[in-house]
Amino acid sequence: MRTWHEVDPRPGYDGFGTIDPYVDWAFGTGAQSAGGYSRHGVAGAKRPKGAWHPLLLDLPQVDARSFADGRFLGALAPADWQQNVRVPEIGASAQFSGSRFVVAHVRPAFFDYFTQTELGGALRSAIARMGVSEALETETIASPTAAGAVASVPTGAAEPGTVVVGVIDDGLAFANERFRTRGGKTRVAHLWLQDGVANAAAGRYGYGRVLSAHDIDSVLAKSTHAGLVDEDEVYRKTEAVAFSGTAAGARYRTASLAASHGTHVMDLAAGYRPGGVPGALGGANEDARPIVAVQLPAASSEGTSGASLDTFTIDAVRFILDKADEIARGRGCGRLPVVINFSYGTIAGRHDGTSDLERALDEVIAERRGTMAPVEIVLPAGNNRLKRCHATLTFGGAADSRIVAWRVQPDDRTMSHLEIWLPRGAPTGRVRIAVKPPGGDWGPALGEATKPVRVWGDTPDRGLCSLRYAHVPPPTGRGMFLVSLQPTEIADVPPGDVPWEPSPSGVWCIRVENVSLGEDEAVEVWVQRDDTRFGHPAFGRQSMLDDPEYVAVEDNGLVPDSDASAAMVKRAGTLNPISTGEHTIVIGGYCHSNYRVADYSGEGLAASPRRLGPDALAPSDESIVARGILAAGTRSGTFVALQGTSAAVAMTTRSIADRLAQGKAGDRDAIRAVAAAEEAAATGSRPERPSEARGGAGRLGLGSSLPVKRVDEA
């Protein structure tokens, strides 16, 4: 009989330490069923035994090399530490030695160290925060590169007019002619297929397949027949596309389709007709926009919750900067300016700029700020404003309570998560949380200071739902309750495993009871993203919040500009949670034909300390009829229209590259200034400037700063 159980968390996961509560779920209750084998929770994706798991570690006082060899633990270091812990050479290199964020790869035995009293205490003292990502496939693990001579940092002046464009995405059709020169050579200077079968060039980075321009040109030449490149042959030979056989895990890859998100974005950001790349003096210079591209693991893209994003993204950024320096050394010039396009978004999170990924990205940007070779990172506002995934709860006094209705869809093959974030403050028992399954009973309430995890299922080790608490240490300094569900459909149980029943779909009720919060202190609720990313097989189905006071559309059929005051579910607070940092550039979308902000473009939260909304808007739709923006399909000569703030981000990336090439500033302040100036100078009839929460400083592309027609620009 399904009922509620109180379960002690795994040792080291007491809710008041450094470990992400998702880790406790993934390795504890969540790992007990077919849906819990993988970090993002695709049913049937079983974690291999002895697998290496990437971690993003916040180490305020321990450098990467000291962590890698266990030296920081002194006599407490286990004899098998280096068998269970490794740090790829790039993470320990001089370029990033000053970073407090370290990406390490660990075996599951690493987590057992936290069960030992003295050793676990020492680890928790050294690690301010730790998050885990999807396990690496065996075939992707590269033979580690030993620490060798440190490559010198390029010095002197940068090559005039040259800007490195970095793209981090999925489904990168790098053989497309939009990324080739007039002579048929590739403009992709370096490519990292993070879940590709490992090769020697990836040793410095720890995993995946790394290809240089020489490697790509060689394959292009061998795949050219009768003067035409067989692009499918290129992808087969590089194992960038494979449905079975030798590629890592034989995982599905979107570059095999007619259109892919990554190719569309890379074309908008850095694609040109062969021979059409702008040069320093206005002429053609096909070396002026070298591309350094990183294709994220397919598993990371399939799991849209973003659970695996942190480590792979930080690795990708460091790869781009490392290769940008290599390009500069090869050209005999100083460091080159870099602009990185990262068109990914999630829903749940802190939304206050203090997440590990946001702080790591801010650190990278700040380190190069004020130099002749800045790094700019452009992120989307997100497309989740209408998905009913955010609620703001306020209370009239002690013992007041609110009930949130969480509708979970059937046929969902991924886990579902809901986060409840409290205001800043010590965990003094300010609220109590209880959960009621569809057709079930209320579970025992969980308070801030209560350690046991609440698990609902037949037995404690066959849990279908869990409720747990974690207090995230400073700079966040906030408490978070996490409700996690197994998939509502488990279609493929690995051979030899005991079949598991799915979680029930329907409305799950979450009761938030106030104990001591004031009337001006709000509790924020976010449902984590759980849909299926464009081009991937259908796994997830987005859950949402039900609220009878929420007004989806007005009588005229339009989406309201503001939220109903009586509704708990809000459109405000739907800004991409990895886009609330201090230095990154965040772009929302608008419709180019009528200048209205796209209804789906993420909206900021007034309580966010670092930004109220995006920095600016760029076109994400040509018109209300012609949705999306045209850019390259995966095969040469094809074009598709894809919709969303990803397109707006990519066009802004192109504009920033042009500014940097001209010696102009391309940082957040500069882009805001351009948007504000275009709004002020715009003439004709158009909607008034959007609010700061919706549109930042204004709309780009009203003048000449941003290209919109993309099929055959010069």
Describe the structure in your own words.
The chain is an alpha+beta fold and 714 residues long. Helix content is 19%, strand content 21%. It has an eight-stranded mixed β-sheet, with helices on both faces. Strands 1-19-20-21-16-23-14 form a seven-stranded antiparallel β-sheet, with helices on one face. A hairpin with a 2-residue loop joins strand 9 and strand 10. Helix 9 packs parallel to helix 13 and helix 11 packs parallel to helix 12. The chain is globular.
What would a concise description of this structure say?
The chain is α+β, with helices and mostly antiparallel strands and 714 residues long. The strands form 6 sheets. It has an 8-stranded mixed β-sheet with strand order 8-7-11-6-12-13-25-26, with helices on both faces.
Topology:
Blueprint lengths: L2 E5 L13 H7 L25 E6 L5 H6 L11 H4 E2 L2 H4 L8 E6 L2 H4 L4 H10 L2 E4 L31 E6 L18 E6 L15 E4 H10 L1 E2 L2 E2 L1 H7 L23 H10 L20 E5 L2 H5 L6 H23 L6 E5 L13 H13 L6 E6 L9 E4 L7 E8 L7 E9 L6 E6 L9 E2 L5 E5 L5 E10 L5 E8 L20 E9 L8 E5 L16 E3 L38 E7 L24 E6 L7 E4 L6 E4 L2 H17 L6 H14 L10 H4 L19
Parallel strand pairs: 6-11, 6-12, 7-11, 12-13, 13-25, 25-26
Antiparallel strand pairs: 1-19, 2-4, 2-5, 3-4, 7-8, 9-10, 14-23, 15-22, 15-24, 16-21, 16-23, 17-18, 17-22, 19-20, 20-21, 27-28
Helix pairs in contact: 9-13, 11-12
